[in-house]
User: What shape does this take?
Amino acid sequence: MAKTVEDFNKRRLRSSNITVVVSIALVLFLLGLMGLILINAQKYSDYIKEQLVVNAYFDENFDAKDSAKTVKREQETFKKIQALGPVKRATYITREMAAQEAKKSMGIESSALFEENIFPSSVEVALKPEYVDPAKIDEAIKQIKATPGIVDVKNNSTLMVEVYNNLNNILKWILGFSILFLILAVVLINNSIRLKIFSKRFIIKTMQLVGAKRRFILKPFILEAVILGVIGAVLGLVVLFGAWYYFITQIGTPFAQDNNQLVILVAGIFILGVLITVLSTIFATWRFLRSNVDDLYYS
Assistant: This one.
């Protein structure tokens, strides 16, 4: 009979531990998934902002006799633009390239309708993501326009501002959901731990009544919490990156190339899982350590 009771208690303890580990792994998986989405949302937000270009034009008056000198001056100006702080990427577009682009956009293959070099050469400038901010874009355009050799700068500032605001709103929503998932993670893991400790409330109080100190009682519970937290975090991370790898192989697009951000995410999830588990164990155990024997039947 004693052996049967002991086996029953072991099975119940094993089942309780499995439930806690699965709860931790599931919650951390969802939290990590939101983290990966947030990292990649920021990455692709920056990528989209970099596609919003500013066009800086050289003087359209062109003397064929001085073509070599003109090209040299334009290339020097191009290098100066590349060195500007707000510039992420710059592309030098010659008159010939501009003419070819114009013919392509109008669907004309013949050169009969075009005079030679009627289109001015220019520099197509992609700004750094932070300079697409409406408060900074004018400053960036002024720097480009002040470059010697540039006579005009054109950009669709209305489109830039609209795209910038829309992307920022999307990132705010994703960040808000991430914070919500973090709160849910704390609540769900805490509830799982409390249920586990609740099943051991009589053991805790018995140890206290026979003279065991609170620190002595807490120690095995904390150690067990660390082990469960580590197992849950590892399991959650394995499932997370397994699912993420399957996802990116299916769509054929690389995601989250910044290894530093991935390391921070993994470390954060790992530490968070262990920390929440340990703190929840301490608070739940402490509650029964401070309670009276009669309160154990009504907790």
Q: What stands out?
A: The CA atoms of residues 232 and 270 lie 9 Å apart.
